[in-house]
Amino acid sequence: MRDRVYLYDLPIRSDSRHKDANFSFWSGLKFQLAGRSEGRTRKKMSSSEILVHREHAEIHQGEAICKKKSKELLEKMSLPKGLLPLEGLVEVGYNDATGFIWLTKKSKTEHTFRKIGRRVSYDTHVTAFVEERRMRRLTGVKSKELFIWVSISDIHIGDPASGKITFATATGMSRSFPVSAFEDDEEENGK
Q1: What is the pTM of this model?
Q2: Is residue 3 assigned to a domain?
Q3: pLDDT in tens, 113-154
Q4: Chain-centre distance of CA 51, in angstroms?
Q5: What is the rounded CA–CA span in Å between residue 87 and residue 102?
C-alpha cells in the first residue's frame, strides 16, 4: 500500500525508494520538488500575501503612475532605481505599516544588466518587505547563474560607502555587485 504525501499541492508517493534513501524525508521531498512546483507555489503565496496587506496600502494602477511610484519608493528606501522591472506594470502597492510592496506586471519578463552581464527574470507578481537599503522575503525574482535559475530572496546594501549591493538566496548563498550596475537605464541615457 502506498501513502500519498501532499506538499506544494503535488502528490508524492511514499514507498520503499524514499525510505531507503540516505537523506532525510523532508530534504528528499524538497529535492524532488525543486523546480516543479516552486513557481506555482510562490505565485499562490505572493497573491495571498498581496490580499492580506492590501487593506491599508497605497495602491496605484496604470503603467505611467506605477513606474513613477516604484522609482520614488526605491529612492525612499535608498535602493537603486533600476533594480526592479518597470515596463508593463499594471499595479503597484505599498503598505507603509508592514513595509510590504508588490508589483503586478502584464507578463513575465527577463532583463539583462549589461554592466555585470547577468540575466534576471521577473514574474508577473513581485513581492517583498522593504526597509532602509533592504528588500527581504522577496518573491518573483530569479537570476541566471551558469545554466540554473536561482530565486533571489534578499537584496541589501550593507555599507553604502562600499558601493556594493548584495543579492542572497534562501539557502544563504550570496553575491555582491556594484550599486552603479543597477542605476536606471533611462537616467544613464539622459546624461
Answers
A1: 0.71
A2: no
A3: 999 999 999 999 999 999 999 999 999 999 998 889 999 999
A4: 17
A5: 14
